[in-house]
Amino acid sequence: MGLFSKTCEYAIRGIFFIARKTAGGGRVSIKDIAAAIDSPEPFLAKILQDLSRRGIVQSTKGPNGGFYFDKDSLKRPLAEIVEAVDGNGLFIGCGVGLKQCSEINPCPLHNEFKNIRNQIQHLLEKTSIGEFTGDINLGIISFSIGN
Amino acid sequence: MGLFSKTCEYAIRGIFFIARKTAGGGRVSIKDIAAAIDSPEPFLAKILQDLSRRGIVQSTKGPNGGFYFDKDSLKRPLAEIVEAVDGNGLFIGCGVGLKQCSEINPCPLHNEFKNIRNQIQHLLEKTSIGEFTGDINLGIISFSIGN
DNA sequence: TATAAAAAAGATAAAAAACTCTTTTAATAT
DNA sequence: ATATTAAAAGAGTTTTTTATCTTTTTTATA
């Protein structure tokens, strides 16, 4: 098990790709996204459908349709995607699921886990989707962009 | 989704309890463990069975039987339990599951995730089961010990 | 040695996550 | 208007995770 569910991984990889690919305008189809990020196409479709319904990513149907981000969406933090897909279990609650664990009555690893989870949350909150659009990410981002 | 699978959470909570409860000798039964850590008894039985087969926890059958830790087992790091149950996905690989991601060709969050995952691994490696036995944990650990 | 206690083993069931397929709707262009 | 393109919606299926139940084996002790 990694940090995220597979669904969430597909979602994040998907938005990485959409952001990069449509940085200069235009849209990108599920087919292209799925191929680029190595995910099952119909499954990814469902995931993006959901994110689209939530307004996290934009989409249009028909010829030249596809997925893209509007200006506002580019400002959203990655945390919103993670929360939408996996919930907030990564950020809150006891690290080992102890009901009785709390600030006043912490489990043996409470503070250590809290620290780490705060870091995860902070990272995902401070990182916006827009950070994956620019040329500055061309060498960093691992997709080849083609045309 | 939290950091660990439910199975792994039960395992960790279980060993917390066994360590604490048998610190002064003796054994503790699945029934008692399950009740204390709020887990389904037969499921926990399977989990401990597995850990027992791996030699991570000790057990004996029959009257006054149950689970306990021998000296060596108390030295084991928590990481071994996590790896046995959830694998090493929390520690290694790309945080978002990108095949192409590596040190030379890192994904946009590679280094940030690496840092966090290293911290998780370090925490779990440096923490041994034996740390959950002593009186020093009585106020910290959230189980009530009874008799 | 018989009985009881407790874990091990095996087989099954239920729920959730991951994934697929088919039909419908919306947008565009001819 | 019609045809085409591409996402949305809906209805499955498969796999994995979580959980249960029953039988067997081992150990202690009366």
What does this structure look like?
The structure is a homodimer of 147-residue chains. Chain A is mostly helical and 147 residues long. Chain A is 46% helix and 4% strand. Chain A contains 6 helices and 2 strands; from the N terminus they run H-H-H-E-E-H-H-H. A two-stranded antiparallel ribbon of chain A has the order 1-2. In chain A, helix 1 crosses helix 3 and helix 2 packs across helix 3. The longest helix of chain A has 17 residues. The radius of gyration of chain A is 17 Å and the shape is elongated. The N and C termini of chain A lie far apart (36 Å). About 5% of the residues of chain A have low confidence. Chains A and B meet through helix 1 and helix 6 of A and helix 1 and helix 6 of B. Chain A binds a DNA duplex (30 and 30 nucleotides) through helix 3.
Short description:
2 copies of one chain form a homodimer. The first copy, chain A, has 147 residues and is mainly alpha-helical. In chain A, 46% of the residues lie in helices and 4% in strands.
Fraction of residues in β-strands of chain A: under 5%
User: What summary fits the major beta sheet of chain A?
Assistant: 2 strands, antiparallel
Which assembly state applies to the chains in this document?
homodimer
- The largest sheet of chain A has its strands arranged as 1-2
The residue-averaged pLDDT of chain A reads: 90
Please provide the ordered H/E string of secondary-structure elements of chain A: HHHEEHHH
Distance between the termini of chain A: 36 Å
Instruction: Determine the most extensive contact between two protein chains.
Output: A-B, 45 and 46 residues
Number of strands of chain A: 2
Instruction: Name the poorly predicted regions of chain A.
Output: 135-142
